[in-house]
Write a structure and sequence with these properties.
Number of helices: 21
Number of strands: 15
CATH topology of the largest domain: Rossmann fold
Strand content: 15-25%
CATH architecture of the largest domain: 3-Layer(aba) Sandwich
Distance between the termini: 26 Å
Helix content: 40-55%
Radius of gyration: 25 Å
Strand order of the largest sheet: 5-6-8-7-9-12-13-14-15
CATH superfamily of the largest domain: Alpha/Beta hydrolase fold, catalytic domain
Low-confidence stretches: 1-29, 186-201
Mean pLDDT: 83
CATH class of the largest domain: Alpha Beta
């Protein structure tokens, strides 16, 4: 009975607290919220009781039954969650809700938040979202309730329980990462190890190299795009032919996002092309958020890797750049781009075919599943985007699960995956660690786990347009930049310039996963672990531990 009571409390907590999760897409009910909880029967929460609780702090006897089963911190935050508006332009919300991705997200919410016991709540939810967004009060939970066109919302606890379970799994996975790759060290031990390795390290790779460089902004043309794009080329001042590194950004970023890394690698003797992908750029998302342009379409799964191909074609005219010896770095969606160009294959599967079915609920907390669903809209069952000029790839916080085991195992060039242990956008186990385990065991492969890295830890600060809370951003990204500078320098010196002496920087101790030469990095804000080998069976043992 204690177990049943715990489950019951969790579900009640989910029903009352789901508002905060749904603020960006959908919410609860109009006059009453009903849900069936076998074997206890049918329950309801009156909207007017929530209204009085939110505005006046009054608690009816019926509402008290549910509030008393919430943890005290959640109960204290509930009025704020119900009344805080979503700070987006109404046109932005309207455009997103009418985009193909927005429709898919709302329909999946509608499977758990229904207009009756059987029918999806999509149309009612979308209408209420738009109406509340344009109302003077804005898109709050309580205002959404007022705009909802029906008297009753029916919650499907089976669907909502799945999302609750998904959240629990993400939390447990994070604990597994910490226990396996970041065991607790005493401050004395850590200080001693740091001091010993610092003395024996021949080079400090986080500092600029010996090359001066110049920068020029160039134009490229992807014929599938409506207009030309830009990239910044950083070139070392040398008469020698140098290898090329391409940098591909993620959603709502720009070629300024990784300018710091482009400059650093150029100082170490690499030509660096930092590409701006117009359709998902910082400027485009600024326009989208202000309601002046539409949401990006699924064809970016193809077009972003093709942007890189056309930049490489253009740079083949540069006599002092070796475009047959190219490395690529990408972050988030750019990480997907890196893996696709390195040989990762998109393969439609049974899960993708179920995207529009009523029993599919993965896309709410799984962006790779959402992207896999949009891949199906392109009417392709198999897609190869590999560019044989790419000889080494780094993917930072990548959307990698989209490839699946078969797609990842087709990569044949040295590959490094960088994951933040606290990444809520691309959860590390699903999106980076499992895909790393799918890479061929004979491949030169590297997994760099950064604690407490987030999805924003390697970006340039002050450039974002998305309203991301500080708790989601984590420690100052500038504190993580030295890690990326060091590992990318060593990785490309080894795999593009074939300088074997840099291999020592990319070896890890079997006991703790630390690189003995890269432990020179400042660990005040971040720690990291370097893994060279992991298979799916080993990963499953870690998850099940």
């Amino acid at each position: 009975m204690a177990f049943a009571q715990n489950i019951r409390s969790s579900l009640i907590s989910l029903v009352l607290g789901v508002s905060s999760l749904l603020l960006s897409s959908s919410v609860t009910a109009a006059e009453r919220i009903t849900f069936n909880f076998p074997p206890f029967g049918q329950f309801k929460i009156m909207v007017e009781d929530l209204e009085a609780f939110t505005s006046e702090g009054e608690i009816s006897a019926e509402l008290a039954y549910y509030l008393n089963r919430l943890p005290a911190p959640q109960r204290a935050r509930l009025p704020e969650l119900l009344s805080t508006p979503l700070e987006f332009d109404p046109l932005t919300i309207s455009k997103f809700s009418n985009s193909s991705i927005g429709e898919m997200v709302i329909k999946n919410f509608g499977k758990g938040i229904r207009v009756n016991v059987q029918d999806n709540g999509f149309y009612a939810l979308r209408g209420a979202i738009i109406a509340a967004a344009f109302d003077d009060e804005g898109l709050t939970v309580m205002n959404l309730l007022r705009q909802f066109p029906l008297e009753t919302i029916h919650l499907d606890l089976k669907v909502l329980t799945k999302y609750l379970k998904r959240g629990t799994i993400l939390s447990e996975n994070q604990e597994g990462i910490n226990q396996t790759w970041f065991p607790e060290n005493t401050p004395q031990d850590k200080t001693l190890k740091h001091h010993q390795t610092e003395v024996s390290t021949p080079l400090d790779l986080k500092t600029p190299g010996n090359y001066s460089w110049n920068k020029q902004t160039m134009v490229y043309r992807n014929p599938r795009r409506p207009k030309s794009g830009y990239f910044d080329l950083y070139q070392p001042l040398t008469e020698q032919t140098v290898p090329l590194v391409v940098i591909s950004h993620g959603v709502a970023s720009s070629r300024q996002t990784f300018a710091y890394l482009g400059k650093h690698l150029a100082s170490h003797g690499f030509a660096v092309a930092v590409i701006e992908h117009d359709d998902i750029s910082l400027e485009k998302f600024d326009q989208f958020l202000s309601g002046t342009t539409k949401f990006p379409e699924p064809n970016n799964l193809i077009d972003q890797p093709l942007d890189v191909k056309y930049v490489l074609d253009q740079l083949e005219q540069q006599s002092n750049i070796n475009t047959q010896q190219v490395g690529i770095i990408g972050q988030s969606f750019g990480g997907y781009t890196s893996l696709a160009l390195a040989g990762g294959e998109l393969i439609a599967d049974a899960t993708a075919m179920e995207c529009k079915s009523e029993n599919y609920q993965d896309v709410l907390l799984d962006l790779s599943s959402l992207a896999k669903c949009t891949f199906n809209q392109l009417n392709k069952s198999h897609l190869k985007l590999r560019d044989r000029r790419i000889k080494a790839a780094i993917a930072i916080n990548p959307m990698a699960k989209i490839f699946g085991e078969a797609g990842m195992s087709s990569i044949q060039v040295p590959t490094m995956i960088v994951a933040g242990t606290n990444d809520l956008i691309m959860p590390p186990v699903d999106e980076q660690i499992a895909p790393f385990s799918w890479l061929d065991e004979n491949l030169d492969k590297y997994l760099v786990l950064v604690k407490p890295g987030t999805h924003f830890s390697f970006l340039q600060e002050g450039l974002g347009v998305l309203p991301v809370p500080d708790t989601v951003v984590g420690p100052s990204p500038s504190e993580a930049h030295p890690i990326l500078k060091s590992i990318s320098t060593a990785f490309f010196q080894l795999h593009l310039n074939q300088r074997a002496e840099y291999n020592t920087y990319l070896q890890s101790n079997k006991s703790d996963g630390k690189s003995k030469h890269l432990n020179q990095l400042d660990h005040k804000a971040f720690d990291f672990s370097l893994i060279r080998s992991l298979n799916p069976i080993q990963l499953q043992e870690i998850i099940d531990h």
